[in-house]
Amino acid sequence: MNDSGVLTIDNTGKFLIKHIGGDPIELYSGGSNTSVALLDSGNLVLSDGSTGKKLWQSFDYPTDTLLPGMKLGVNHKTGRNWTLTSWLSENHPSSGPFTLEWDPKGQRLVVRRRGMIFWTIGVPKNPFFEHIDYSLIHDYVFFSHTNKDEEFFGYFLNDSPKRMFPSRVRWRLDYRSRILFEERGFSTEDMCYGYNTDKGCVAWGQPECRCDNPTFELRTGSFFGPNQFDNRIYDDLNNGKYDGNESHGPGDCRSICWTDCDCVSYLAMGPETGCLMWTGKL
Questions:
Q1: What is the DSSP letter of 168?
Q2: Are 183 and 216 part of one and the same domain?
Q3: Is the dihedral of CA 230, 235, 241, 243 positive or negative?
Q4: Are residues 72 and 163 in the same domain?
């Protein structure tokens, strides 16, 4: 991971991220009289120094984390979508396969994998969501809004002094599609296989080989050949195949194995990228 990034305003008023090994990333190109401030809400705001007009704000560019006051939805005037996107893997911050989005037509939150809806949190009805344990969300007050310019969902913290978990501020969509409220949450991926529609899961087309409704189970074992130090470790030894695709994270490995009728098990290769697939008998 490249941690050399520096946020700066240059002498022409451009708001930039400078980093080693590449051109600066331009966030905003404006006038010379600009200032930036990190608000108590966590929103980083670039303003016109003369008028105070807001020119750019980080809340318009969510990554994998949602904070109180942020929005999920769409701005019809600018065409901007506010969506959470998971990391590719635990230590790889590139965009991963999962997104958490507001569905304005259904008035619900949905999780997509590579664009396909596979789970929905349900419709927010304070203080409940249809498919989330109340104990995880009773700290929040939800809101949604629809007009000709915007359609969005958001939340604030319940200001009750009896709130049990005052530190549970942020929501995060992790690289395995888990939705975490601070560090407490649940995995949608473990529940939804495309043939079941309980607990918020959404059905989608299945390979014929999965018609008997199988599931994945966590097991220990090895894909290695007789000599685990053999430099052919990722060849087709013992029916294990390594794809080496740098755009595949753990969330992709599961989906790839599921759609391959010969695949009976998979291993996400460490904290980075690539999948090792097992075909044949376990």
A1: -
A2: no
A3: positive
A4: yes
How far is the C-alpha of 102 from the C-alpha of 111, rounded, in Å?
9
Query: Tens digit of pLDDT for each residue in 104-150?
Result: 888 889 999 999 998 888 777 766 777 777 777 777 888 899 999 99
Contacts 24+ apart (CB under 8 A), 22-31: 27/56, 28/55, 28/56, 30/55
pLDDT > 70 in the chain, percent: 84
**Owning domain of residue 53:** 1-59
CB atoms within 10 A of CB 58: 18
Helices within the chain (DSSP H only): 134-137, 250-259
Residue 145 and residue 217 in one domain: no
- pTM of whole model > 0.85? no
In sequence order, the 6+-apart residues with CB closer than 8 A to the CB of 15 are 7, 8, 9, 26, 27, 28, 29, 30, 34, 36, 46, 56
Of 132, 105, 184, nearest to 142 (Cα)?
A: 132
Q: 273 exposed, middle or buried (CB, 10 Å; 0-12, 13-18, 19+)?
A: buried
Asked which of 182, 205, 228 is the last residue of a domain, the reply is: 205
Rounded CA separation 166/214 (Å): 40
Q: Which of 59, 84, 101 is the last residue of a domain?
A: 59
Pairing state of beta strands 92-103 and 140-146?
unpaired
The one-character DSSP state at 237 is G
Assess whether 102 and 174 both reside in one domain: yes
* Of the candidates 250, 241, 209, 244, the residue with the CA atom closest to the CA atom of residue 113: 250
Amino acid at residue number 187: S
Q: What is the pLDDT of residue 229?
A: 46
List the strands of the sheet with 171-173, edge to edge. 65-66, 171-173, 178-181, 184-187
